Amino acid sequence: MRRRLTAVPVLLGLLAGLLSTAAVTAPAALAYQGCNTSASASASPTAANAGQPVDFTATFRDCNGQAVNTVVTFSQQSGPAGCTATFTPTSVKTDANGAAQTTVTLPAGCPCEYVLAATGNGVTVTTTVRENGCLPFTGAARPLRVPGGQVPLGALGLVLAGLLAVVGSGVFLVRSQAR
């Protein structure tokens, strides 16, 4: 008995693969390449003991390299679960050089990586500080970085699901023809 092959599973697999690829690549293709502000962040020291003050500085400049006059808000972007760094002050106006500085204190009993953020003029910059005692292979959760931007792990899962659907449809097609 010869089985009749339908194209529906193959078409659905191809469609899923194309849609998942488009969802990831479309934003990068439409990225604005114009003049952006120049901003940077740094911490000193980059590794500290709990309670030790860390100087966190963010600098904001315009397209011409001139200092941006803005209020900068400091925050913790990520760190060990249930652990929060303290910022003193939590926001400050940039100086004549476009720099804003705060003092960060890492909490006791939470050794690991902390990603510190500074937001000013619609731009957020980050830097990482490591509390002494953190195991070398652990750290704060970070997005997957790829050339041309960041891909959230959810989008990566969508791409992998699309590829699995395409490959699975191809296996179904080959097995159906073999019988």
Characterization of this structure:
The protein has 179 residues and is α+β, with helices and mostly antiparallel strands. It contains two helices and eleven strands, in the order H-E-E-E-E-E-E-E-E-E-E-E-H. It has a five-stranded mixed beta sheet with strand order 2-9-8-4-6, with no helix packed on it. A four-stranded antiparallel beta sheet has the order 1-3-7-5, with no helix packed on it. A two-stranded antiparallel sheet has the order 10-11. A hairpin with a 2-residue loop joins strand 10 and strand 11. Helix 1 runs antiparallel to helix 2.
Biggest sheet, spatial arrangement of strands: 2-9-8-4-6
Terminal CA distance reads: 9 Å
Global outline: flat
Radius of gyration: 24 Å
Number of helices: 2
Percent of residues in helices: 25-40%
Contiguous runs where pLDDT drops below 50 for at least 5 residues:
21-30, 139-154
Could you give a short account of the major beta sheet?
A: 5 strands, mixed
Mean pLDDT: 75
Overview features:
179 residues, alpha+beta, five-stranded mixed sheet, four-stranded antiparallel sheet, 11 strands, 27% helix
Brief sketch in words of this structure:
With 179 residues, the chain is an alpha+beta fold. It has helices spanning 8-29, 153-178; strands spanning 38-44, 47-48, 53-61, 71-78, 86-88, 91-93, 99-105, 113-120, 123-131, 144-146, 149-151. A hairpin with a 2-residue loop joins strand 10 (144-146) and strand 11 (149-151).
Which helices and strands occur, and which strands form pairs?
Layout: H1 8-29, E1 38-44, E2 47-48, E3 53-61, E4 71-78, E5 86-88, E6 91-93, E7 99-105, E8 113-120, E9 123-131, E10 144-146, E11 149-151, H2 153-178
